[in-house]
Amino acid sequence: xxKSQVFGQDELQRKPFAERVIRFAIGLCDQxxxxxxxVLAIDAPWGSGKSWVAxxxxxxxxLESEVTPIYINAFEFDFHHDPFSVLLSAILDAxxxxxxxxxxxxxxxxxxxxxxxxxxxxxxxxxxxxxxSTLIPGSGALVESISEALGDASKDALKIYSEVKKTSDAxxxxxxxxxxxxxxxxxxxxDELDRCRPTFALEMLERIKHLFDxxxxxxxxxxxxxxxxxxxxxxxxxGIVPSLxxxxxxxxxxxxxxxxxxxxxxxxxxxxxxxxINARFGAANNDVDLLLPLVELAPYFDATLRDLEYVILLSKxxxxxxxxxxxxVYALLLWMFDRESFEQIRQGRSETFQAEYQRFAKHGNSHxxxxxxxxxxxxxxxxxxxxxxxxxxxxxxVRLSCRDLDLGSLRI
Length: 412
Description:
Elements lengths: L2 H4 L7 H17 L8 E5 L6 H13 L4 E7 L10 H12 L6 H17 L2 H15 L6 H9 L6 H25 L3 E7 L6 H14 L5 E7 L1 H12 L5 H5 L5 E4 L10 H16 L6 H10 L7 H13 L8 H12 L1 H8 L5 H10 L6 H16 L5 H16 L8
Parallel strand pairs: 1-4, 1-5, 2-3, 3-4
Helix pairs in contact: 2-3, 4-5, 5-8, 6-7, 6-8, 9-10, 12-13, 13-14, 13-15, 14-15, 15-16, 15-19, 16-19, 17-18, 18-19
């Protein structure tokens, strides 16, 4: 795949954003001293396309001659007890054929096994309690924290902590050798961290900072920051300031531009929706009666990419209501975004069409064949003049589509 193919037509200018992220990540790789971990966070709300950007970012990185990219979907692994093994396995897999000496890789593997062996439940609690004074406000003295965590085993707490620290230091040393010996910088893109169990997400951050913070290795997190902050409060309570906590781990943060905002034209947004659907569901998808109206009507509802996925899912859950083409897609969008109008149309209240006409009219010129047909039908219905048989049929189909769309009390 060439660089021009990674982002396709790139209607939303994601490629320049990705190039900036790569530049920032390489800068983090090369710095000896940083205010926090070698971590860059891409912050974007759910449904804004950050996972799409994350996967394209990795493809773009594969084309860089001096970078070894690694992609981890954290949500796929959050059933693991400790994210350390997930990170280590990904690094070993990516670097084994990257020109490193066998002895260096084997040294990292051995050191990693030692960390896993040392990280028994008691040892992990001891280490967390010991580190707590720098991470969690209100932590007690080191020995008191360890003693409380281990109960009867408190006499061995310092010994356990010493052993864990020793193996952790040895692991970082071996990881540093791998990163230094590598011909390329190692950039690990972690996606969906904000969807993980709160404890797993925070343990991932802590493992990155305390075990994987070495020069020439950097992490890029694609996250919804408010969700991550919510995980922090869920785990540590209201006595902690989530934004300050995250600053211990993240050195740089960039916001994914909201290029789907109202400033974009209907045509631009429809093209981007089409590009996303082709990439997500396949360009050869033959469900034209659903997908074509969807990309043309979704911009009028300010839909996110996640919303598009839900519309497609809902269409499969109510197949009996989908035989009326774009009227059925319009009914689905109403059900998702304006349940009150959906119910009013379902009940036969014609005055609702006035508000629906305004929904489309405020955007100015209608977009696409579907938009044009629907706006014309709504306009003639509201004004009562120039009604054609086609306009009457469209309004009838909209009513019937709302009536037939039986999703009950389903919530999404």
